[in-house]
Amino acid sequence: MSGDLVVVGAGIVGASVAYHAARAGAAVTLVDAGRPGAGVTADSFAWVGASGVRKGPAAGLRATATAEYHRLGAELPGLPVSWSGSLSWTGDGSAPHAGPGQTIVDAATVATLEPNLRQPPEWAVRAPGDGAVDSVGVTERLVAGARAHGARVHVDTPVTAVRRDAEGRIAGVETAAGPLSGTTVVLAAGVATAALGAQLGVRVPVEPSPCPLFGLRAPAGLVRTVVSTEDFDLRQVAADRLIAAADSPERTLAAVRSTFRGAGSVELISTRIGARPMPADGEPIVGPVAGVPGLYLAVMHSAVTLAAAVGRLVARELVDGTVESVLSGCRPDRF
């Protein structure tokens, strides 16, 4: 790999890679078919949490998520992140289980944390370290940070192919506006990564997975934390607005009204269906591609949660030449 990078995709992952690599001294070109964060990044519920992580190839990576966002917030003051904590419960009355960084709280504590609940659950799982981000706002700040460290940014510029030289090494990308040169190309283009890889004979097993996101007009302060139930994941994003990740807008609206006091005036104001990139095994695909010198993949579910950590680690591998052991379970060659 080399420090002359072209990062394809200015969603939150690509923006994070570009920022961290430029900050580390690399010559970075960031290119996207649209505007920064305007794709599936904008459709994310954007819950950031490291608690409860116990197993899986990316468990170590996920366990660093909140700490990495705190680190990023110190580097980019004013980063739009709120650390409200989260509350999760089910409706079957079964005793919950707490993972690392979580505690079991009773109904009285739940009522203190969410005073507008009509009927606080007998038990809930609290993760006080959890938070949420303005995913588009964070992406824009990362792109601005990359620019401040010298990165060149091309928006509204679709990439049509990855270029290789006569010896098969990466030489940059072709775009609708002409070629962009680079000896390393990072594909962080979400579901579009699969098609770009296929042109090189590289199989990237990632498929689009629908992610409905509903915007609700609601009274100020109706919801205080990130609330997760069988009906919805819900949080307040502005004085008069909630967002919910759930399956049905009608059922979600009814559930919010029945769950919270003072929610009778809550109304649906938007519906978005994003196409989040879902790797075949659900785990991130991060690392160099064997057989294509200079090609590196960075595509994953939970992109918003993992972006701060992944951007820093990928930059270290590409710029400093380190091999990050925490990414060992995420490598493309596992497929």
Automatic annotation (TrEMBL):
GO terms for molecular function: oxidoreductase activity. The keyword Phosphoprotein does not apply. InterPro entries: FAD-dep_OxRdtase, FAD/NAD-bd_sf. The keyword Oxidoreductase applies. Residues 4-316 form the FAD dependent oxidoreductase domain. It is an enzyme of class 1 (oxidoreductase). SUPFAM superfamilies: FAD/NAD(P)-binding domain. Coiled coil: none annotated. Keywords: Oxidoreductase. Its EC number is 1.-.-.-. It comes from the Bacteria. Pfam families: DAO (PF01266). This is NAD(P)/FAD-dependent oxidoreductase. The lineage of its organism: Bacteria, Bacillati, Actinomycetota, Actinomycetes, Kitasatosporales.
